[in-house]
Amino acid sequence: MRQRLLTPSLLGLPLAWLGVFFFAPIVIVAIYSFNVWSLFPGPHGFTFAGWRSVLHSHVYLHLFWKSVQMSLIVSVIIVVLAYPLAYYLALSGTKRKYILLLLLIAPFLTSYLLRVLAWKVILGDSGVINTFLFWTGLRSPDHPISQLLYSRFAVMLVLGYIWLPFVALPIFVTLETLDRRLLEAASDLGASRLRAFLRVTLPLSLPGVAAAFFFVFVPTLGEFVTPSLVGGASGYMYGNQIVDLFNTGFPDWETGSVLALFLIVVVGVLTVVFSRFLQPQQVTAE
Amino acid sequence: MGSEQEGMEQRRFDRQTLLKLAAAGGAGLAVGRTGIADAMWTAATAETGRLQVLDWAGYGNDGGQAMFAAYVKAHAANKPQFTYMTNEADALAKFHAGLKVDLFRPYVGWVKYFATSGLVQPWDTSKISNFKHLNPFMVKAGQYGGKQYGIPADWGFDAILYRTDKVKPKSNSWSLLYDERYKGKIAWFDDPVENLTIAGMILGAKDPWNQTDAELDKSKKFLISKKHLVRTIWSSETDLWQVFGSGDVWIALAWPNDWVQMKKKGLPVVYMHPKVGRQKPIAWIGMFMLLDGSTRPDLAHAYVDAWSSAKSAKWLEDNYGYGEANTVAKPSSSDLLKVLQLSNPHAVGLPNAYTDRDVPRRAVYAHAWDEVKAS
After folding, report:
1. I need a labelling partner for B15 at 20 to 30 A (CA). Which of A271, B125, B153, B282 fits?
2. Structural domain boundaries enclosing B250
3. What is the reported pTM?
4. Closest CA to B100 of B299, B302, B291, B297
5. Which one of B87, B93, B232 has the shortest CB-CB distance to A232?
């Protein structure tokens, strides 16, 4: 009886939190997207017009696809980069692995904005990289590598840098909880280290890899701060368009809400798909 | 019954006000004429609480204090409290989302829009002692339907800032913003109307502020075809100063203050007013507007009066590099005097510049600009 009362009361607060700060805002955005509520006074009512116009607009869909491509590239590259890092930390047997892990996370102790802005100093026409190239004579000061900053490359580089620790952590956790006896068994049965990695370690760490990929792909897909700081004219992403529709030029909350919900729907579908790979019992196996 | 109660409250208020005035007048005798005026004004306003101002960054307690110091001195109990806006669209969204403020500052192109929106009310110019010193051309630009909806304040131009050591323009034309020779060294400003209007000017649209669908489509396609030349599209001046000052950009659609700031950095820069054919710079004028339903209209008038004084105006010109509607004020810098053409009372109008104006199809322009940015 006591147990029966305890569970709902324990769940009550988190559920209320989720309801008020997650579901309610989504419902409000949905109401705006169907023009049931409108920013401006005057006649308005339920309509699919906003959805129809977005789904038939090559501009918004093209921009969404561009953002998907950028997020995919960032996610794949940093998963590939983070894997060896996590592998070394988890399986090399080094006693300093937690210190190294702390060093990996250390940049997170500073402001997000500061870290993004620091890249401007590094990537600008008069930045660290270009100045080094001038000094070595590889480039003339009149011809710096301009693509380093205010470009898609800059956005992807900075996003990769920002999210790398998030990617490394779930892979590290998976690898660290790996049952080492399986590797010993593989070795006893004559498997080389590469074969043991490909047949044992990698398959068992895939849930962590999938989680890592998902952790970075979802937030970068809706990213707007980094592109607005280092993206310039060509690094404009889907998230920037949503922000602009809400408060730049002339407010269009209906279309902005449709774009925001479209993003949520895509992320929701991806969550369902990825959840097949995210098997908690394997990620946190003892 | 309701009106009778209102009448009683009115009478009570009047009696209280008279008592306050008498007390203020008595106290004022001891502090001189200015003190009397201030004290009487303070007493006359039964308005309470902090004055709520929606303004742009840099115009509040984040650096613009000198512009309203006289107000704060006279109304210490009603100091302004600021909310910041990033543009008029942002302000509009904030109002409709429920933000309550007493006054805000859109620019001249939005006067008609807000005057007809029901969101604002006209000013009583008799309550603004410095009103008589304001530029008549700008004062007129703040009127709609014969009423003074906007009190002109800061003003300036949209023109081209460029580095003389790096850039050699072929002519004084807006075309410099789309010059293939300077690919990757150009910055546009993030505003739908400015960009599409300038494109319309170049492409010969009959009325760049009210382009037909065909003209607008042409302007949009023109901007899309030139976007690859653009390094960044700035939305805050500090971003522009950073990108221009670091040498990442040599040409920008900019404001007079940006020219001042780059000169301060020691960069060789020119602030070019386009003059080819029908091309001219676009002039903007900040217009204080009083919100309908403001509970502190008298304080709002006092605040605007402080902003309109010659002292405040000179401070703005000297420190921010913008013009101010007060015609008595003159900046210390002769360079600035020249760039702002302060000796010309029609600097912001023809034949010198196009005063920014109402855009009947603002939403359509905004959508076209969205497409340019998303391309």
Report:
1. B125
2. 156-282+350-374
3. 0.83
4. B291
5. B232
